[in-house]
Every structure is written in structure tokens, then in C-alpha cells.
Design brief:
194 residues, alpha/beta, four-stranded mixed sheet, 8 strands, 2 domains, Translation Initiation Factor IF3
Length: 194
């Protein structure tokens, strides 16, 4: 039995875009390792780069004419991956931390969860406070609303409310974002004397 026509038959060959003969513009501004910059027809710039034992890589395709640089393609790929990795390392991903309450949550439990929310906001994350109703508790939505208002008031100096408090099904929720002055600061490296 033969596989259907749309069945993948193994890895497809990767087409290197914007390298050597794959460059589609008529002419390029070619930059060579010795610092020479020339506007040449693409085929001539590719030939000149190959004579040097290098590849011609399109660096800035939107420029007029497009800018191409003669360099080793493998090294260029490695440097790009390294730049992307470093950029990913430096970015801070903001998470939404969820805290669940019930309409009759005790004071100690409330304080415990409020302290967690303060810690989350100081780390730079957002907090979603949810009051869940079960069974006949849904008749007392006002208790959940009062609990959330109290929670928002207690976190007034640290965070601010995004949007409004919403009743969705059997849960009442609010999202709190950190204030700018409480955003996380870069930790200074400790020296040996400290």
C-alpha cells in the first residue's frame, strides 16, 4: 500500500534564504572583510565573495540597494543564535499568580494569602484574586465583593487594579498589577567582604 500524496516523505531540504545565489535583488551594496564597500550586481558580488572563500549574506534587505556582507555563513548563524539567547536571558516574563478565596475565608487565611500577593507584586508579577462560590453561596455575592474590595484596599500602595471586578459564572475575580516603584530591581552582586 502506498502512502497518500500529502504524506511527508522525510525531511525537506532547507533552503538558505538571503545567502549567495538565493539573493533575488539585481544589485547589492557589498561589504567585504577588508572594509571595502561597493555597489555591485548580485552575481558579481557572490563571485567575489566565493573567491575570498566566504558567503554573501543579505544583512539589510529593506535598504536601497540591499546591503550584503561577505562572511562565513556558519559563523553568522552562530552569532545570531547567541544574540537571541542573550536577549531571551535578559527579558523578564510577567506571570499571573492566582489566589483563591471563599466568601467565608478566615482572617488568618486572608492575611496569609495577602502576604503572598505582596511578595508576588514585589517580584513584578500580576495577581489574580478569585472568590469561588459553591452551592447556595452564590446567593451572597456581596460577601465576595466585600472581600475583594478589602483585598484591593490592603494592596493599595503596592499594586493597582486592572479593569474592574467581574462576576464570571460562580467566581468573582479581580486582577492587580504591580506599581512601577515596586517593580523588581536588579540585585547587586555581593562582594567577598560582605
Amino acid at each position: 500500500m502506498y502512502p497518500p500524496k500529502n504524506f511527508p516523505r522525510g525531511p525537506r531540504p532547507r533552503i538558505r534564504e538571503n545567502v549567495n545565489e538565493a539573493i533575488r535583488s539585481r544589485e547589492v551594496r557589498a561589504v567585504f572583510p577588508d572594509g571595502a564597500v561597493e555597489v555591485l550586481p548580485t552575481h558579481e558580488a557572490v563571485r567575489k565573495a566565493k573567491d575570498l572563500g566566504l558567503d554573501l549574506i543579505l544583512v539589510s534587505p529593506t535598504a536601497e540597494p540591499p546591503v550584503a556582507k561577505a562572511m562565513d555563513y556558519g559563523q553568522w548563524q552562530y552569532e545570531n543564535k547567541k544574540k537571541q539567547h542573550d536577549a531571551r536571558k535578559k527579558q523578564h516574563v510577567i506571570q499571573v499568580k492566582e489566589l483563591k478565596f471563599r466568601p467565608n475565608t478566615d482572617d488568618h487565611d486572608y492575611e496569609f494569602k495577602k502576604n503572598h500577593a505582596i511578595r508576588f507584586l514585589k517580584e513584578g508579577n500580576r495577581v489574580k484574586a478569585v472568590v469561588q462560590f459553591r452551592g447556595r453561596e452564590i446567593a451572597h455575592v456581596d460577601l465576595g465583593a466585600n472581600l475583594l474590595r478589602r483585598f484591593v484596599d490592603d494592596l493599595a500602595g503596592i499594586g493597582h487594579v486592572d479593569g474592574q471586578m467581574r462576576l464570571e459564572g460562580r467566581s468573582y475575580n479581580v486582577i492587580i498589577s504591580p506599581d512601577k516603584q515596586t517593580a523588581p530591581k536588579e540585585a547587586k552582586p555581593k562582594q567577598k567582604g560582605e
